[in-house]
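Workshop exercise sheet. Pairs work together: one partner reads the sequence aloud, the other fills in the structure field after running the prediction. Swap roles for the next sheet.
Pair: D.N. / O.F.
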Amino acid sequence: MEAKQENLFDTLRPGAKVGIVGIPPRDVIGRLNARDAHILDLDEPQLKADMELTAPWLPRVYCAILRTAVLNALHLRLDMIFIDVGPGKCDCAFHVSTVLQDILPIPVIRTRNEDDAAFGHPLCATKMALLEKFKRITAGVQSAAPYDGAQFPPCRPTAGFWGVPPRDFSLLALFPDTTHVYGWTRCMENKTPADWELEAQFNAEVPTVFFAQSFCAKTALAKFLAAKHPHGLFLDADVTCSSSTRAKIQAFLELSGVPHAAR
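Structure field:
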């Protein structure tokens, strides 16, 4: 980071509210942790507000995650925002940072996360309700510390979920507790969001849903890998999980012989 940006950490009071978009470098998160900053993940819905409020600044064909980030930034009282615009996020995030810098009175700091020290991904392979698993993985972004792998022993997978955390977590309730997580979410837990080799991995032995948000560039990779998988389903969704999306997941899992989940 530039020296000017470095000095911004000194202006943060304890408990300051800092928004993050994507996964800023561990050094940034560590500094925020050291200052007891209250970190808010702007990629996740933090309030109930109409997504159309972002229309003056972003086109509707932007993915729901970035539109959610802007919606949160417009309505939350934040002291600072860090947004990853590196290879672990997307070019669209860079343009969103330009918009936020123009419309907000607070510092909006661009970062490029190219961390390559693997912290492991035990949550992705442990037996746990998939919705709870994703909540823990996404919450892990707010800390520079890794998980204790001994607390999360691996289980034998019966299904796979490849991709990014969906904006609407409700679709995760359709999967069994023995679902292993792959794709960018695995990179997320590993704290290496730009690890393309890790992101492209999947298990060909278990039925796998390859998911990306509608209008996200990762839909191309999801569709590509789903076609290579012997039993894969490509799926994209926009703001919410529709009844047809739920039906596709349910039918895929049931026809694949996956043990019944809480669906």
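Discussion prompt: The chain has a mean pLDDT of 93. What would you look at next?
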